[in-house]
Amino acid sequence: MEPRDVLVVLFDGLQSLDLTGPVEVFDGANHGAPGAYRIRTASLDGGPVRTSSGLTLTPDLALTDTAPPHTLLVPGGEGTGHPDPRLIDWLRTHAPRARRKVSVCSGALLLAEAGLLDGRRATTHWMLCDTLAERFPAVRVEPEPIYVRDGDLATSAGVTAGIDLALALVEEDLGRDLALTIARHLVVFLRRPGNQTQFSAQLAAQTAQRRPLRDVQQWITDNPAADLSVDALAARALLSPRHFARAFREETGMTPGRYVDRVRLEAARRCLEDTTDGIGQVARRCGYGTPEAMRRAFLRVLGASPAEYRRRFQPASPPVPTP
């Protein structure tokens, strides 16, 4: 089997975890399938780069000396804010020759700057999605998924999402069993569905400014199985249902119903991850009432049933490392 060349672009100010997370996944694949990936790093001139945390990385070669890779990986970091124009020129000219273009976090900004995301679906870290959409209106930005696949292009959110995406690529290349082995070895979940939201309901919603609405948000989180209808929540806030619904949306960016849906889903996920309680018990505890109602919610948002979600998450004995 010919190795798949993975070329990682290095530049000053990159975030080291955006690089090391995916690289550890591809390297892990080589333990189960020797020679599956040939991983190399390259900077503009072949010289060392300094990461945003102060680490110095020495690349294998210069970008000008590289051949078109199978997978081109562009990490993110502070350095994407003011990139070297030569790097953008190199990406514009050479990145299209790669069979797969992959970005982690704000690395999507570099691909967009080079015109590689025009007309394509893409994501980045949730804090930068508005920036990506405003600076590059030709990009179809999807702010919620942890990663987005669009043909030969794959973009991901923050650090851990890069690991999720790399696991998905290994599964595509070499099969689920090997990807699962890598995930177990790294003690991560194989694999969070790409359409899983990047952040919790508390983070996704801007925290309400008014104390009564903040108190209601906390009540929802603490009591997912309670009556969380608009009427009940409005009564807790001492507002009319109409006034409450309007104020809640203005201050949090989502309707009360959508917020409740997210909180309940997150509560159910935590129960499935952290306990051995039965599906029916989890459904009742988290406000779904019936297992079928919870199942529909999981399929709609995560693309997996509660039982499948639990099977994917449950840890197993780690494999014996290959000498």
TrEMBL record:
The entry's keywords: Transcription, Transcription regulation
The organism's place on the tree of life at top rank: Bacteria
Coiled-coil regions listed in the entry: none
CDD domains according to UniProt: GATase1_AraC_1 (cd03137)
A molecular function (GO) term: DNA-binding transcription factor activity
Domain HTH araC/xylS-type stretches: 214-312
Transmembrane parts of this sequence: none
UniProt-recorded name of the protein: GlxA family transcriptional regulator
UniProt organism field: Streptomyces platensis
